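Retry 2 of 3 after timeout on previous attempt. Resubmitting structure tokens to design endpoint.
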């Protein structure tokens, strides 16, 4: 007998990314908050980190 293992096709899960927006308008995306925070600190802690869904 074949395994059903949870049923049919599933909708893909959304991916949450962290966007670092710098004062000059540059936007960079990171997969973890820690990466975005580290990049912000390297840039002088002047950016804004927000979440976005891809």
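Retry 2 succeeded. Sequence:
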């Amino acid at each position: 007998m074949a395994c059903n293992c949870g049923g049919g096709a599933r909708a893909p899960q959304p991916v949450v990314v962290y966007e670092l927006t710098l004062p000059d308008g540059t936007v960079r995306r990171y997969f973890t908050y820690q990466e975005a925070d580290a990049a912000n600190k390297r840039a002088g802690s002047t950016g804004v980190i927000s979440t976005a869904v891809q």
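Attempt log closed. The chain has one helix and three strands.
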